[in-house]
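Marked as duplicate of an earlier ticket. Keeping the data here for the record.
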Amino acid sequence: MSAAVKHNLKNSQKDLWVAARQNMVDGQLRTNKITNPEILQAFSTLPREIFVSEHLQSLAYTDADVPLGGGRYMMQPMIAALMLQAVATISGARVAVIGAGSGYEVAVLAAMGLHITAIDNEERLLKAVEKCLVHLALQEHVTFKKSAMLAGDIEHAPFDVVMINGAVTTVPTALLAQLTERGCVVTVLRPDATKPGIVSVVYKNGTQQSIQDSWVPYLPGFNAQPGFTF
């Protein structure tokens, strides 16, 4: 295959990704009450396909959770956008992402100019996230922390927002304790595995805001039965 043909194929694939991003924004986000211009801009420009394995890149813009291995997933675009939009409404710029996962949500927050502590217990995922962020020149906005996800990050607390990147049965008190006084946790509360969860904002003061139903998978370790004390 000649260099010219390879170049044309590369450009053709690039055009397909651009179109896929725009279709995702127009068909999945704008139609589901995603109105924050910074989030729409980030979803329109960040190459979501680089955050998953090459053989799964065709799924990157579909309305589905993309497997990352080990029971981990990159959340479907609309649910991720709803959670990120909730994060964006909170005053302050210090965000902890529990379960960095694919790193896509971390990249969106970094593109919005926020400082993020990306926490994960899997070295392979943190290394992949860092590689993507370096590629996008967004790494200066992110602190990487390998830690038990249920423990959060006492060292860098308090945070204005803790975003749990997946569903939980209940919000661990250890994470609520790492919030500023007006801080909150953004996650999917799913106390019953047989039913959908709800994208929720849980404030340190005990109040709660429900946003939308979601079948997003549990973040491993966060699916204990209600009443379990962390």
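See parent ticket for discussion. The radius of gyration is 17 Å.
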